[in-house]
Structure formats: C-alpha cells, structure tokens
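Why do we bother with holo predictions? Because pocket geometry can differ from the apo form. Keep that in mind while you read this record for guanosine-5'-triphosphate.
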Amino acid sequence: MDSKKEKVVVMIPTYNERENIKELIDEILNLKLDDFDIEIIVADDNSPDGTHEIVREISQQDNRVHLLVRKKRRGRGAGGIDGFKEALKSNPDYIIEMDGDFSHQPKYIPLLVKFCKDYDIVIGSRFVKGGKDLNRSLIRRFITFLVRNFIRRLFKVPVKDVSSGYRCFKREVLEKIDLDDLISVGPSIVLEILYKAYLMNFSFYEVPIVFIDRRKGKTKLNFLTLLETLIMALKFKKYIPSRIEAFKSSN
Ligand SMILES: Nc1nc2c(ncn2[C@@H]2O[C@H](COP(=O)(O)OP(=O)(O)OP(=O)(O)O)[C@@H](O)[C@H]2O)c(=O)[nH]1
Ligand SMILES: [Mg+2]
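The structure, written out:
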C-alpha cells in the first residue's frame, strides 16, 4: 500500500545550474522505485541564471518537487542547511543531499537508501572498492587528494571519502545534529556535518560511486572557497567537541 511506503527527500543546493537542473530532476523522478516515495527540494540561492525559475515551473506541475529560494547568506553550506530544514518539515524517513551538476548520478539513490536502513549515514564514496573519481581536471583531483588527506589526519574520521557531498541521512541524524548550531557557510558544511555526526556516534557506511565531471555549467569552487574550507576545518576541530559534551550532558 502506498501509505506504508517510506519517504525520501532529495535536497539539491544550487547556484547557477540552469543547464543541468531540469534533466537532473527528470532523471530522479524517473527512477524505478518500488520501495519508497521520493520528493525533491532545490535550495537555490537566487541564481542569476534563473535556475529557480525553471524549478518553480516544474514544481507547479509536479507536487513532488519543491523550491526554496534564498536571498541571504549565499553559500553551499548555508543553502544546504536551509534545504535540510525544509526537508525535515515533511517528516521524511531519509534525506539525501546531492550536487545539481550530475557529478552525483541519480542511479545510486536506491543503493544509498537501501544501506541507510542499517546505518545512520550512507556516503556515496569515490574511494572504496568499486568507486571512481572520473573528474577530468587533474588540478581538481589533486585538490580533492590534498583536502582528503588533510581532513583525515586532522579529524581521524573512519571514512574514506570525507568530502563527498552525496549522502543519505536517517531523519533522526539531521534532527539531532542541531542544524542551527552549524557554522559553515560554504562547502565546508560537508566536513562539519561529518565530524559532528562522528563524534555523536552515528554509524557510517560508504557505497562506491563513480563520480563524473559536472555535465554543464561552471564550477563555484575557487581558491578562496578552498582556503575558507581549510580555515573552517581548523575551527570545527576546536568548537565541535565542546558542543558534543553539551549535547551528551543534556541527554
Ligand atoms: N545554494 C547554493 N548552492 C551552491 C552554492 N555554490 C555551489 N552550490 C551548489 O553546490 C553543488 C556543488 O558545487 P560545485 O560548483 O559543483 O562544486 P564542486 O563539485 O566542488 O566543483 P565542480 O568540480 O565544478 O563540480 C552544486 O549543486 C552547486 O550548484 C551556493 O552558493 N549556494
Ligand atoms: Mg560539482
């Protein structure tokens, strides 16, 4: 019976993804899913290229698609946090976050959800057996390599793909993590949530994914965002453990 199906909300933060977003939404909605219902929330930062106009039009025709247009504090992190909050409002069983440029292929969604029944967080991983990073840019792969090694040393999190933004969460994880307490505005949000969840003893599992180059459009990653990510990581290292202590003593 339909009413017994579990619900998955896919949250996609976007900035200037006009060329990708419609096809991506179509591909997600066309997945063959017997076990669960799927909805999509696009958290767009009022993209100058009009990404939100496209999503608005789709959302008016299909009630599984929702749009959140943000006008303040632009950023992958701030957008993602608001997207998660919006997702939680509809009480889903699972929430997936993924990029809006096709680097994260929708075909892995059923696999992420399947493992999320047994683990709190399931990560689409380039660095477990069977996973691949097919990013054409050597520089981009090198940056991933540096960030990954730096972060793994700093945080000692038992996860191979620490910077993957393709993940599935049990609803409870996002409810307990206190989204209002996160400090990332940019892409460091991915690491902040990972580290916090790890210290809160949530369980992780990595499923292999083949990460491909963004299909169309331009990257938003630049030297400044990268620097910001590294500085933020040093900040988390200090602030998160004390927050966890406060969390534990209040439970
Ligand atoms: N809401 C919001 N989303 C953003 C912002 N910056 C990036 N994004 C989205 O976050 C996701 C990841 O950003 P990308 O530019 O693809 O970053 P990347 O994957 O590290 O870089 P590429 O190698 O170009 O793919 C994409 O869906 C972007 O549209 C932002 O400021 N606000
Ligand atoms: Mg990308």
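The chain has one domain: 2-249.
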